[in-house]
Amino acid sequence: MFLRKSILLLISVILFFIFAYLFWGYSIDDAFITFRYAENLADGYGLVFNPGGEPVEGYSNFLW
Which of 42, 64, 38, 37 lies closest to 53 in space, CA to CA? Predict the structure, then answer.
């Protein structure tokens, strides 16, 4: 029973690191985009990625 739990734990840890390696960059990019839009909205530029640009829906999660 102990061996079975140890193997299951090892497989879970390995899978976690594989998925973290594969998907880590996407959450950072999404956070940057969201915070950039929020900063421009707070500064009075509206929902734009770059001040002076057209307002488009370029954020993926408005409530993040």
Answer: 37
Note the pTM of the prediction, 2 decimals.
0.53
- Per-residue pLDDT of 25-53, as tens digits, reads 666 777 888 888 889 989 999 888 899 87
Torsion from C-alpha of 55, 56, 62, 64, nearest 10 degrees? -100
Annotate the chain with three-state secondary structure: CHHHHHHHHHHHHHHHHHHHHHHHHHHHHHHHHHHHHHHHHHCCCCCCCCCCCCCCCCCCCCCC
Rounded Cα distance, 58 and 24, in Å: 20
Identify whether the C-beta of residue 49 lies closer than 8 Å to the C-beta of residue 40. yes
